[in-house]
Every structure is written in C-alpha cells, then in structure tokens.
Amino acid sequence: MNKARMALSKLLGFSNPNDVAFTNNATMALNLAIKGLVKPGDHVITTMLEHNSVRRPLEYLKRTSNIEVDYVPVEPSGEMDFQALKGLFRSNTRVVIATHSSNLLGCILSIRELAELAHEHGAVMLVDGAQTVGHYPIHAEDMKLDLLAFPGHKGLLGPQGTGGLYIHPEINLEPQMHGGTGSQSEQPEQPDIRPERYEAGTPNVPGIAGLAAGVEEIYKIGVEPIYNHEWTLTQQIIEGLQELKGIRILGPKLGVARTGIVSFVLENQDPAQTAFELDRQYGIAVRAGYHCTPLGHESACTLNTGAVRVSVGHTTEEQEIDALLRAVYQLSQR
Ligand SMILES: Cc1ncc(COP(=O)(O)O)c(C=O)c1O
Questions:
Q1: Which atom of ligand 1 is nearest to the CA of 30?
Q2: Which residue in 161, 181, 226, 235 is a FRET match for 310, CA 20 to 30 A apart?
C-alpha cells in the first residue's frame, strides 16, 4: 500500500503519500469527495461535460440535501464559457467540480485556471481525473488542486476495482464509510489521521499492489511521451475521418490539445450499428451510446443519436489507426 502511495505522490505531484485514499474506482472517490464536502444549503458549480459519477451524486444531494447546482455550458468543440462561469459564483459556492478531460469530446479543460477562480471565491476545486491521470501531465500541488479523483484501471494500468482520491492536507472531508482501521481502536469515532480516516475496513491489497506496478510503469515510460504518442494518433484519426463524406466528428479541431479520444457519427447510421460492425467485421473495439454523459451529448448536439467513440492508448500503433480508417471508410460508403 505504501509503495503505491509513494508512486502516486511522485507521479501526481503531491508531497505527502498519506494524502491519497484508496477506493474501488473513480466513482467511489468522487462520491467521497462530493458527499464528504457538500453540506445542505451549499451551491456547486460544475460543467455540462461531467460523467454520471459526478452528476448523479449531485442530483441526489439536490433531491435530499437542498443543495443548488449550476452546470456551465460547453460548446460542441469542448470550449467552456469562462465569463459565464465567473458570473455563477455566490457567497455559498462550496466547490467547483470539473472533469479534466471529457470522456466524449477529448477536450482538455484549463484546470489550473478553474482552481484559481474557485479559490478567489473561497471555493474548493475538485477534479475528475478519470481521463487524464497517466495520460496527461498532472502536478496536483502546482495546479492547486484540492481534490483529485482517479480510477486505477485506466491510464494507470492497474487492475479493475482500484482507484483513489488525493485530498489536500487542508481539506477535511466527512468520511462516508465508518469502521475498523487497525488504529485508535479504543475510540468510538473514525480516527482523524490519514489515510485511515477515509479507508475503513480491509483494503484491496492485491489490487493496490497491481496499481503500484502500473504507476511505476507509467512513471518509467513518462506521461509526456504517452500524451505525445496518443495525441499524434488522434490527429491521424481526425485527418483520416475528415476525408469521409457524411461524417460528423465531435470535439476539438485538428491541432488542438486533446486526450486519446475521438467520437463521431456517420450520417443516417445508428452509432450502435457502426460499433457492432466495427467489432464483428473488422475486430475493432469502440464504444457507442451515451458514454454515461448525457449532458456532454446535449452539448455536442448528439442527444438523439449518441456517438461512436474511438480510444487510443500508449500501446496503440499507427497500423491500427490505418485499419480503423479503412473500416470506417467502408462503412461510410453504404
Ligand atoms: C470522466 C469519467 N469520470 C468518471 C468515470 C468513472 O470511473 P470508474 O468506472 O472508475 O468509476 C469515468 C469512467 O469511464 C469517466 O470517463
């Protein structure tokens, strides 16, 4: 466990390895952050790009704890209206929550700028790093993040069932799980020492050991080369798809920073059918549907159709992109 904490603190730029709490996934980390922080009567600012793992806890608290939530609009290109966001702050704004990168559009949000704005207004900054941790350089302290939720099984190459939450030393969350920690056992209350405060019960030690190995591997390869490789491949995908007739490509234009995701819709074709045929005829795995982000699809004007999402990783090769482009070309000809 300590090895994993130390590897994460080195990779994600925070000083005290005990400031990370392990969870089963990013969803659990986001729930801990949101429910441990937001109190009845609070106001929350978030974006239209959020995954349901942010939206649903917020909607639940809206229903049960009398909180208010503003979702900042986003252009189909993924650009966010910072002026509109600035106008939303109130005296009771407790937290700004933003995904670092959209799991539909691949756009990257200016998290550092958002964190500065949040702090100017006395609010906390919570970042959903599900799409960037291990894929895009992050330094939690330099970026002034208060809370950073992440899965272990995506960019960090860990096993499923692992994830975590970085918690700035000055942020005190209400624990969402109470129970044994193997420390201060005579006390009826959850200890206030870290990481035990947020890690009651027997931990997933085999999973965390796997996560430690994944994080060390990413550190060895380097996040910057991973990002550059993935960006190059996404540019190749966009260039190729742009040649096709009857296609709509979502998210930032060619040349703009993005993570390894490109989503598209073929005119008059159900994305689920496109995905099915890519799999069955060409052996290419993509994801169709709403990608757990209905508000993201509303922003992209694809709420009626959903979209096909292609993802690349650091082991994806150029030949695989060529095969994808050939397959989508053939499907677009029908
Ligand atoms: C942006 C974003 N946030 C949160 C999640 C939830 O992650 P997990 O499945 O680890 O709970 C995902 C998963 O796809 C995601 O893409």
A1: 4
A2: 161
